[in-house]
Amino acid sequence: MKSRSYTYWVVIISLFLAYLLAIVPLPDWAMNWRPQWVLMFVFYWTMALPYRVGLGFAWAAGLLLDVLEGTMLGLNALTLLIVAYVTLSLHQRLRMYNPIQQSGLLFILALVALGLSHWLRVISGQIEPVDSMYLLAAFSSAAIWPALFSLLRSLRRGFIKN
Amino acid sequence: MFADSRFDYLHSVRFFLSYTATPVYWVADMPARTSELFDDVFVSHSDLLAENERLNNELLLAQRELQVLASLASENSRLRALSEAVRIVEGEVLAAEIVNRSPDRASKRVLINRGALQGVFVGQAMLAADGLMGQVVEVMPRSSWVLLVSDPLHVTPVEVNRNGERALARGVRGAADELELEFVTQTQDVRAGDLLVSSGMGQIFPKNFPVADVISVNNDPGQDFAVIKARPRAEINSTRHVMLLIPPRVHETPVPDVEAPASEVQP
User: Taking the first listed entry, what is the main subcellular location of this protein, grouped into a coarse class (chain A) (predicted)?
Assistant: First the structure.
């Protein structure tokens, strides 16, 4: 029981880092390239610990991101829920993939998440539609994934004993 | 999600969730604070002397202008008394700092380090030293989101300082920090270089506060209205220190308790 709560702390602290990276102010040219940090962390933890980190976790993580970004409550919660659901249903296959193949799926998930959140905000009148440059974040997320994967894997192996 | 965008009752949920957001904002702002600290500590003697001299000169200029202004103000109040117009009451201001900006390009909003605990409320006007910047759209315990005047969903009621022509200034889409005057007919007298000041209509912004400079006027006979672009006076992307206007009406009433602004907000 003790090691289990310990696991949650590792996940939560790593997620705190993801939140920081997600809201740190960036110069104009880099804004569109900012990777989907929280999405990638949720992707990793649902893949690595599918029995401990699930849909409820993804939903709560998304809700906090909504509060941080000042978007309407439930927007990121919904997109992260979709990401976690797909990852959970594919996690056994995903673990067999090498990181390059995983980043292929991550790319598609990030693209769906970005598009859905933009579309929902436009139809609810939160923002005016912009050009599609915001989708660039999916490319940067996929590009950075192999490095993040090995980092998070060493974190998991160092701190969490299955 | 639908409930949040359409109904009010989730605002309190949101308000309490944002207590958890405060430490994240605080850590995310650390690089900027550190660089400011370094700027303050490692400054040379000659730089300080030069700055002191510059500030003294500016103070002299400002004092001279203030004397002119005082006479103008008294003259103005006499004229207003003649025309029985409502006297403009100058509100107090609350100093604030911009600590973050909206992480997506589509909405031009900034985060300031003052919130409900300091008496910030939704709809409060935010000013920079050189011009109008925006209005508060969401209040959290110790921070607030401010919609900038250059956001495409923000419309500022303005008038041309030179002749009092009224117009509505909306932010343009895309990355540019520009405003567009809406529904100005081609016969109205607006020229490039005109100063746009807030007209005070809409009762959110103070009257006669500089907003933007007209940079181009394009009269295309094929279109119904003139295409007029303006650039905001405030350095929207580089200012850190801003002011929140406290209107006299709110100043008289006691500061609302913590939950009140969150439950009463009407975006």
Answer: membrane
3-state secondary structure of A1: coil
In whole angstroms, give the CA distance from residue A53 to residue A56: 8
Cβ of A16: how many Cβ atoms within 10 Å? 15
Q: Confirm if B192 and B215 have CB atoms less than 8 A apart.
A: yes
pLDDT value of residue B4: 59
A72:B31 CB<8 A: no
Delimit the domains of chain A by residue range. 2-159
Q: How far apart are CA B124 and CA A86, in angstroms?
A: 43
A67 and chain B: CB distance < 8 Å anywhere? yes
Between the alpha carbon of residue B48 and those of residues A140, B55, B119, B163, the distances in Å are: 44, 10, 35, 43
Identify the residue whose tokens are 């801003």. Answer: B242
Whether A122 and A129 have beta carbons less than 8 Å apart is answered as yes
Q: Which fold has domain A2-159?
A: Arp2/3 complex 21 kDa subunit ARPC3 (1.10.1760)
Q: How far apart are CA A7 and CA A10, in angstroms?
A: 5
The pairing of beta strand B155-160 with beta strand B195-198: antiparallel
List of chain A residues whose C-beta atoms are within 8 Å of the C-beta of residue B146: none
Beta bridge partners of B179: B171, B230
Q: What is the pLDDT of residues A20-57, one digit of tens each?
A: 988 888 887 888 889 999 999 999 999 999 988 889 99
Cβ of A11 under 8 Å from any chain B Cβ?
no
Q: Do A72 and B5 touch (CB under 8 A)?
A: yes
**CB-based contact, B1 to chain A, within 8 Å:** yes
Tokens 């672009």 map to which residue?
A: B229
